[in-house]
Amino acid sequence: MEQPLISIIIPTYHRLGALAELLEALYRQTFKNFQVIVLNDGGPSVAPVVALYPELQCTYIDLPDNKMHVHARNKGLELATGELIMLCDDDDLIVPDHIERMLLELADNDLVYADVEIVQYTTNLQGSSRKPISRQLFAYDDNPEGMRKFSTFMSSGCLYRRSIHDVIGSFDETIHHYWDWDFYLRVVEYFRVRRVPVASVLYAFSPVGGNMSNDLEDMRPYLDKLSIKHGLGWLPTKNFFLLLEEPDVKNREADSEIVWDGLGIVSRYSGNDKEICNIQNNTTSL
Prior knowledge:
Strand content: 15-25%
Mean pLDDT: 92
Number of domains: 1
Order of helices and strands: EHEHEHEEHEEHEHHEHHHEH
Number of helices: 11
Structural class: alpha/beta
CATH class: Alpha Beta
Largest sheet: 10 strands, mixed
Number of strands: 10
CATH topology: Spore Coat Polysaccharide Biosynthesis Protein SpsA, Chain A
Shape: globular
């Protein structure tokens, strides 16, 4: 039986070590018939990292300007040749049989997505490798009413039919932070969507960052735009983990199979970071 070709779209920006770990995770997949599209969103070249994995069928593009990750994903769609699409963030990981499992689940559906484990890491001084230090299951029922109040759709690792875009169009770049919620709501209106109750995606999360209050204020216009577009009514902007404690969200907690062994991934970039940095510096100076 002929295997379908899957196009895996990965926007990346300033995450060489994490990207290398994702490429390593893809190299370890039990299902092999996929192309990888890496879109460098206006950051320093990651071509030397991609070159560490010649076994992967990779298309690498340097976008001239940093127009953010949603724009990069749309560029990836233009380059995709597979009949199926998988989305991956550059700092997330998937377990070795993730693609194989998702492909089986897609047989009777048009889009499938997995539960995730939220993982916090420590990173070595060179930024070339990460060590997991905590994990938390993220698994929630996807009932229609609940998904209009708080989206628990995780786009990383989702697999879907490319033909979906013939109906709904590309990702909405104007909604920025909420592009994935918008994508889910548009897809579920016309297509069969299934949540797979297996936590086969590792979602990288760090509580350390900029001013959280300012971040939430910046997100407000995009959330309002999403709400108007889909008629969702008023929606709160709260810290991610505070939202998980809301009664409506707690009531949606679901069982899920844990499949990750808890170990970090050692990529080919780990230990080669100095050499790659020298290549980048030499390239920049030309």
